[in-house]
Structures are given as structure tokens and as C-alpha cells.
Write the C-alpha cells for this entry.
Amino acid sequence: MPRHSTARTLARRMVAPLAVALAVAAPAVGAAEPAAPPGLPLDDLRAAASAQSPEAADAVERLLAGSGSVDPFAPPPKNVPQPFMPAPTVGPGCGGGVVPYAQTTAWVHPGPHDSVPLGSIQVFVDRTIDVPIADSSMTLVWLNVENLRGGIGTLDAAGPHLTATVDSGPGAVMAAVFGSIRYANGAFCQVVYTMGGFFA
């Protein structure tokens, strides 16, 4: 066999595996970037809160200031409801009858449960009187303290509660609720800001 033919054959046998190896090692052109964690980055969250209301902007700053109170390395309870601090609530009839004062209770139930997946939280706020809710401006502000991403939302009336489900991402989460509730009997309640630390 001629020497130059042998050299070409050897070269082909060496180049083919090398080309395959390079093709496997090279990143795919246009490969999808990893999905960002849920929520807004802190600067965007601050801007969104400022655009919504002074109360929402204040809530973001208060959550950020309190974020050191949640230990992200503490073993989180699994699928266990976790309470907010009780919220003083004032307004005509919000305690029943003519009583103008009540304590609103609220809590977070982290997933997985029902239709709430792992890495999400479901927020509940109790009514202070056994009357249907006619209207509400109850606001939820949350901040995942492990990646400083968060969001702002509203709570919807669902049976005896106001509720919202948030894709917070897993880990330690600070959240606050505040706003007003108007009941079908005319009672009006202003729910004072309350916050809590939770594990999603």
C-alpha cells in the first residue's frame, strides 16, 4: 500500500473521534439560560412597591430590615402552618356589633399541600366577624431572604379567609400583610401592618 494512502487513512481515523469529542464538549448554540428564581430582584421590587403605594414601599424596607431575624439555616418545618404576628385591627364594627377593635390572625402554609407546590406559600388572613367580605384591599409583600427576590400581591376572599398563593422559591421568606376589609354589613376594618418569617 502506498505510504501517502496509509497516512490519509490514519489521519481520517484520528480526526473523526476528535470532531465528535469537540461537538459533545461544545455548548449548544442558543441553549436556554437557566430560569431565574421567582419574584423580582430587590431594586425592581422597590420600584414596584413605590409605584403601588407608600405603605407597600415601607413594607419592603421593613421586611429587608427584619430579614436578619430569620435563620435560613434553621431546619424548616415541613408542610406546617406558620403564624404571622397578630395584627391590631380597627374600624366601626370590626370586632362585632359596635366594637371598633379586633385582632386579625394570619398564617402561611408552605407547600406541598393541596394545589400548592413545594417552594410556594399560601397566605391566609382570617375575618374578624362572621360576615361575607364585600371588598378588600389586603396587600401581601414578600421577600425571599436567601436570594433577595420578592413580590407584591393582593389577597382574594375565599370562604372564611382572604388568601393568596405565592411562588416564593424555597428557603427562608419574610412576608407582610396590611390593608382594609369592608364587610357586607357595612363594617369597615383597617388591618395594621404585620409581618412574619417562614420557610417555604
Remarks:
- The chain is about 25% helix and 35% strand.
- Residues 40-199 form one domain.
- Confidence is low (pLDDT under 50) at residues 6-11, 14-28.
- The CA atoms of residues 161 and 191 lie 14 Å apart.
